[in-house]
């Protein structure tokens, strides 16, 4: 990413990393030829900032930008954005709270106070924008006749479950009502009181495997190994989907020539779809409760990382690994699910924490798998900021992260709690380093 200040706002954003084969939106590159056809923000002082800002804006609107190695080289030859450009970028897309946060971090890390305050003050007149206004509309999608669907490929729907028969019943009934019929279902049941007869009530081609170990990623990997289908659709047991769910995943992969259709997830029935979930775009997250993946992806990059068993971010690791290896993943609003987030069962019974909110005072913070993921894939300046920001934001509800007052309050609370936070971090880092050694990453 051309803008260095993104380390204060989105340090763990996968597009900060250039994939091995370039590809989707690599390093926010956009050529000057493309720039001439777009609305350019002339508030920036440098050409590199104008190019990067335009690319970032288009990405947020769903433009499926791709970069070549030559385009990246051209961008690297340009002068870097100025300090003033950096503050504009943060103010424009994240607002005053995050500009203040960036200024605070830079001042306490001994940056030139006069230059920082001058650039900060100069950016105050920049208005924050809604990055998702006027998204790209792929009008041809609605009338697109998918040759993939016409070929009627077999799909494997993979569901790991644990003590959730009540929720699983509704999920399987939704599968019975699918408009696309050529699919089978693999359930890896880890329930303590396994009930094989439960599955007899469904009119589905269903294959059930009992797994005594309560390990989510082991369950999904076992299902992948048991299946033979070229299209694998991952589903959670506490979800509800529409009758066209499988159909829309296949159509998306065909229309965009994608490798992954990353369906969106809504927390409750009737919830308003968040702006960035309402249109097609490059996916910046992988949700293993609603995603279709070509088998070729697994053949190339391997299965899910089982070191995430009992922890968090196994989804993120797989999605990031696929992106780095050049596979195309599309965020698909047409294949949404309602995620009921059952209060019991599933991951909640596997000893897992929220990524940055452990239940016990002296428990590792963040979850060791978070450090493992960030340290394995991101350069030092990004993963350290990702952990720092995550810890700071853990003091407030996620919905308040753009509130200036709440963000500053959270910073203050982090300073007060810093001795405890340091102990928790050291414990987490120790476990994460062992995980990295097991993975051969250090």
Task: Write up what this structure looks like.
The longest helix is centred in the C-terminal third of the chain and has 21 residues, at 418-438. The strands form 2 sheets. Strands 3, 4, 5, 6, 7, 8, 9, 10 and 11 form a 9-stranded mixed β-sheet that branches. This protein has 442 residues and is of the alpha/beta class. The mean pLDDT is 90. Helices cover 40% and strands 13% of the residues.
Short description:
The mean pLDDT is 90.
Secondary structure blueprint with pairings:
Blueprint: E1 23-24, H1 32-35, H2 47-60, E2 66-67, H3 69-76, H4 83-93, H5 96-108, H6 113-122, H7 140-143, H8 147-150, E3 155-161, H9 165-176, E4 183-189, E5 206-210, H10 216-226, E6 231-235, E7 239-241, H11 245-255, E8 260-266, E9 281-282, E10 290-294, H12 295-301, H13 314-324, E11 329-339, H14 368-377, H15 380-393, H16 404-416, H17 418-438
Parallel strand pairs: 3-4, 3-6, 4-5, 8-11
Antiparallel strand pairs: 1-2, 6-10, 7-11, 8-10, 9-11
The unreliable regions are none
- Class by SSE composition: alpha/beta
Distance between the termini: 25 Å
Counted beta strands: 11
Shape: globular
Helical residues, percent: 40-55%
**What does the largest sheet look like?**
9 strands, mixed
The share of residues in extended strands comes to 5-15%
As a whole number of angstroms, the C-alpha radius of gyration is 23 Å
Strand and helix order: EHHEHHHHHHEHEEHEEHEEEHHEHHHH
- How many helix segments? 17
Q: What number is the mean pLDDT?
A: 90
